[in-house]
Amino acid sequence: MPGGKFLVLTFAVAMTIWLGGLLLVVAYNIVGGRISLRGLLTETLTGQMAAFSRPQMLFVSLAAAATYVGKAIEAIGTTNTFPPVPTELVAAVAGSQAVFIGGKWLSSALSKLRAPGAVK
Amino acid sequence: MNPERTTYLFGFAFVALMLLAAALLFVFAPAIPAGASMPPLGRLIYALVGASALGAVILLSALGATVIIKMALGTIDLKYLVAEESGAASLSRFQMLLFTFVIASLYFLYALYGLMNGDAAKLPEIDGSVLGLLGISGGSYLLSKGISAASSANASNADTPAVRTNR
Is A73 within 8 Å of B88 when comparing Cβ atoms? Predict the structure, then answer.
């Protein structure tokens, strides 16, 4: 294609700037409070602070993302394929999700039991 | 300025730019293979393909820039980016946003590195385990939404008195 390499490079640079801009705008809005994180660690069904399920999922997600970014940056230049996610990391994320879903299901069941008119 | 007029103005400017690019490519199109003469039809196709590709790059870049500028100015409201309809932030949405950003950023990084090293024709490949991780995240989001929806439905059923009919 005419000027193909130049066009591909221009587009890749434009998209990288775009993605960087998107990240910056989202981060700026989170820090400025315009993207609401209110209730991130609160159980929506009961309105109470989640003791374990939510904080652990937040921690595991951030840790998994950071670990994978480190691993992928290390592998740049050696391969054109994303490095595989370590099995331990997949297991940790899956386990964390299971705890989160379990906690949500439990609080849903408890709120049903506590609801007025529930059979005691 | 009248928005309709501005749109027409940008449209005409864009078409004029594309025509100019096509004309320039038509005049200066290099022959393939080098040194051979290119027939006029081949030269025309070459020019049109080049101008269309340039147009696509400009359009997509302009679209991306518009979205970012509107987000930065607050015209596109990001308040509920990670929040549910109730306004409370959702941890599952936050996690999906995080994973999407991580994978998209790495993809661009790999693609740019490939371009810089003359490997422009090959797009980076995403390992199956990375897609699996995104799948786990998406699946748990769906489950969590299902539990919330079922719970809300139960709560509204409890609030509504049952209708009795005589049969």
Answer: no
